[in-house]
Amino acid sequence: MKPQIIPMGGAALPEALDNLLLIEYFARQTGKRSPRVCFIAAASGDVDEYIVRFYAGFNHIGCRPAHLPLFKRTPRALREFVLGFDAIFVGGGNTRSMLAVFREWKLDRYLREAWRRGIVLGGASAGAICWFEDGLTDSVAGPLTRMRCLGLLAGGCAPHYDSEPARRPTLHRLVGRGTMRASGAADDGGALHYVGTRLVRAVSARGNARAYRVTRSRDGVVEQALPTRLLGAARNNR
Predict the structure, then answer these.
(1) pLDDT digits 0-9 by tens, 86-138
(2) Which domains does the chain carry?
(3) Which one from 44, 125, 139, 204 is the annotated catalytic residue?
């Protein structure tokens, strides 16, 4: 398996679990009939409700889910635990705090090894931006800021592009100033799919969800809407 990362803008695991097209797509990329999928909920402090929703959603689509606790009784053989899955899904929350925890446990190294081995990586919100060099984050109270992330993928990333009004203008301003590198962005319900370090497609679980590429040019900032494949087109997409 080639390295793959699937960053999602948001709404991959809605509370009602009424649209699971993004996580179905994510799980299919493993090539396994019933893939083993690990959930990392460190960005939310391992909040129980989020973990329960993960199990409900991934069980529903025929996966074998498990989660990695980082705030109580963390596995001693952490590297072996991480490398024992077909896919790893990282949840949303405070990206800055999550990455500090990753580094303390050396999980940043183990995730890079998992990626190189072909274990499919991905996630929503914090679980989307963490894979890039730069992320547009609300981890600190106040205006959105750029933060350095894991750097598996070049450039930056911005989630919640359609649902949080400050996301688009802030990304444009930071890319235009050169504070952030050229970036991908995804609406809630949208996702970017990277194979190796190359963006191969954008997908959507909702008819109006899109993905974008934001770059700096001599004349300012250019936002390009990417061709986006609608998942489950025969179903009721919202």
Answers:
(1) 999 999 999 999 999 999 999 999 999 999 999 999 999 999 999 999 999 99
(2) 4-230 (3.40.50.880)
(3) 125
